[in-house]
Structure prediction request, 174 residues.
Amino acid sequence: MPRRRITLLILMAVLGLGYALPERIQIPVAGASKSDWNPRSFWFEPWGTSGVHKGIDIFGKMDTPVLSTTDGLILYTGELSKGGKVILMLGPKWRLHYFAHLSRIDISTLSYVSSGQPIGALGDSGNAKGKAPHLHYSIVRVLPAPLSADTSTQGFKKAFYIDPGAYLNAASKH
Prediction:
């Protein structure tokens, strides 16, 4: 079998495995419910320098534990100017889960985490300094879904972004 065909088969197997992994989804702020975020905040505009809000903000008390929303591999922990203390995790279905404005990070890069495992704490870091403590939570597809794009402001980016509120609500119905 030619090397190119073997490489393609391996790639297809890895991609398939990523989609086959189950998602054990839960709300990422300990004790929070869907009443702790505004369901209309996803893709709300105008939203500062980013134009539209590509996630949801889940509010709570400072230093409330932030939990992994699903099983995954931590790809990045650190600080960004807008997000403050942030965590980026690769989860099932080839989805990136982004947690921002943390007061602290309790996990290290390249760690594997389970759904519900504490990974940090609610805060106001980055451009949320001085505002109510909250978690900015976004979900990004690694592989786009072109039919999700629309004509709204930056609507082509919806091929990559998933509405976290709808994602969490759907999980709570199972």
